[in-house]
Amino acid sequence: MKVAGFELRRIAMPLVAPFRTSFGVETARDVLLVRAATPDGDGWGECVAMAAPLYSPEYADGAAQVIERFLAPRLFAAGESLGPLDVARLLEPVRGHRMAKAALETAVLDAWLRVRGESFGSYLGAVRDRVPAGVSVGIMDSIPALLDAVAGYLDQGYLRIKLKIEPGWDVAPVRAVRERFGDDVLLQVDANAAYTLADAAVLGALDEFGLLLIEQPLAEDDLRQHAALAQLIRTPICLDESIESAKDAADALLLGACRIINVKPGRVGGYLEARRIHDLAQAHGAAVWCGGMLETGLGRAANVALAALPGFTLPGDTSASDRYFAQDVTEPFVLADGHVAVPTGPGLGVEPLPDVLAALTTSTTWLPA
Ligand code: OSB
Ligand code: MG
């Protein structure tokens, strides 16, 4: 496939409400989109790097720069023969920058699938036409505010609640949610690496609440300490930030650092590596679920397709568009009976709405081959 060039497009998406985690507060999503232009049509990839390097070392400006200076030229050098399976191999000499690489691979894969008339879901191996939707609930100023937010999401039909936690906002909010909504709610927590092994007692105090999992309690490079923590608490440990590749996933599972993996395609370098993690976890008997990074409809479309693979046995952070955005860049993903439909059209199966995209765009850079 001939790629004539990549367009880097930055868009500013206001959030419907501030989203607070242990690493910061977001009020708007500053998104880098990549459009692969080919003679047969376009392909889109959403870079999940956030504006600041607080969740991971990557950040949107840096991703745009590494694409322009180091990644796109390597793909252009491949000439006419570039296919989606070549992208990761061609970019492999550049260390890290997995979110930037994932955006390029996704754009090339989308363009390629659109030409073949095949959907992401079909290509990746989806076995469902809709996926159960969970929702990630940020840290709030008070327990009553949290209970109101959770009540609203349950009313909308969300099938699983994930509470963001940090030291000082952990046992009390979990207890309050259990007391108000009961033991049947599928409930889990995400610490975004905010604790240390010295906090094992407070993390163990969560055992009594029957959580599905605790996500990334310790630092991203603390695999051995996660394994040690797993011996001290009953709640299953799920890793997010620690898993940047299928190799990391294998290490974590072999070490006993986690029993569950949050698969975020951007964090691991793309949907093909994400599928490898799915396959590996399935072989190991470990559960995976699809995480999110406040994606627009473009990234959400691909995530929902991935979440339809057979090993994704837990509900993901595959919420409806209106969880974050009053106006999405694509037709919105909506919740129906607690589920989100897997797109069936070629490629991502969704397109940016031209007028909306134009109105949200803050800059564009054209990188010619
Ligand atoms: O840790 O899963 C995370 C959002 C941004 C960065 C990291 C995380 C999150 C979320 C929300 O929890 C996921 C989503 O709803 O898209
Ligand atoms: Mg997480």
TrEMBL record:
MF terms in GO: metal ion binding; O-succinylbenzoate synthase activity; racemase and epimerase activity
Keyword Lyase (UniProt): yes
Cofactor(s) required, per the database record: a divalent metal cation
Any Pfam family: MR_MLE_C
Source organism, top-level taxon: Bacteria
Domain Mandelate racemase/muconate lactonizing enzyme C-terminal: 144-236
A GO biological process held by the record: menaquinone biosynthetic process
Signal peptide: none
Keyword Chaperone belongs to the record: no
EC number: 4.2.1.113
CDD domains, alphabetized: NAAAR
Keywords in alphabetical order: Lyase, Magnesium, Metal-binding
Matching NCBIfam families: menC_lowGC_arch (TIGR01928)
Protein name: o-succinylbenzoate synthase
Organism: Jiangella mangrovi
Biological classification of the source: Bacteria, Bacillati, Actinomycetota, Actinomycetes, Jiangellales
